[in-house]
Amino acid sequence: MAALDKIPILKRMLEMGYTIALVVLISGIVGLVLAFPVMWLWNFVFGKVYTIHVLQAWALNVLTGILFGNKTDGNR
């Protein structure tokens, strides 16, 4: 760890990498938690025809976020 004290930019990059990894991990966990209501609703409505699992509900959340997400043109 002495090399990190000598090279401050390397220390800053390592801290930034940890922060990015933590944000990605927390986003994935939150996304999976929010997929449960989608799965339950889907299975309640379409349960006799087609049931989905948690990862399929998570993918459905991602897809609808891409298709119907907040679109801004940059002007406020």
Quick tags:
3 helices, mainly alpha, elongated, single chain, 76 residues
SSE sequence, one letter per element: HHH
Distance between the termini: 46 Å
Q: For the CA atoms, what is the radius of gyration?
A: 20 Å
**Helix count from the secondary structure assignment:** 3
Sheet-strand content, in percent, reads under 5%
Count of strand segments = 0
Arithmetic mean of pLDDT? 87
> What are the segments in which pLDDT stays under 50 over at least 5 consecutive residues?
none
Structurally, how many domains make up the residues? 1
Helical proportion, percent range: over 70%
Tell me, what's the shape?
elongated
Structural class: mainly alpha
Please summarize the sheet with the most strands.
none
